Automatic annotation (TrEMBL):
The chain crosses the membrane at residues 46-64, 79-101, 108-130, 163-182. It comes from Sedimenticola thiotaurini. InterPro entries: Sulf_transp_TsuA/YedE. Keywords: Membrane, Transmembrane, Transmembrane helix. Pfam families: Sulf_transp (PF04143). This is Sulphur transport domain-containing protein. It comes from the Bacteria.
Amino acid sequence: MSVVGECIAAFLFGSVVGLLVQRSRFCNTAALRDAILFKTYRNTKALLVAMMILTMGFTTFLTFGDGNPMHFDVGLNQVAGLFLFGIGMVLAGACTVSTWVKSGEGNVGAMWALLFTFVGMFLFSLLWSANYWPPAPASMTGEPNLETLQLGYSNAATLQEKYGIPAVVFGIGQTLVLLAIYRAILRRERHGDSG
């Protein structure tokens, strides 16, 4: 596919996804917040279905296609960053995706959240290039490295590369776990409605 074709496909895909997210009011933050605080699971079920579709699609593509996934080592820096990002999403009242949607609808608070997302990414890019912790070349090896607080990485691609287990096997396993959670939510909703 040419560069122009890729741009057109990306534009069409992004437009359809953006329309679906805007019309459905889908939000990753709400998926977890509403389930925990309000015991409502509309967004949670949507998130689980999306994760099942993406997991099967991604791992099938890795197994039978020319997938070239990025590898990220998991370490204490990722845990701290994800924790801070999660706090920011809760304070903003939306995930990054729904912040884009709300900004497009004219929500000033979402615009501020989006602006400071960009500011934070810019500041992090300066920190990354000047003083990345832990030092990237020495620690980002894919293997556990406790001196640099890196745990290595393990995903469907590494199972396939290291052990010869097709990535789709991992995808099926993860999808079954997500399906079990989805079914447990449906049971909980049925018992809540009848009780």
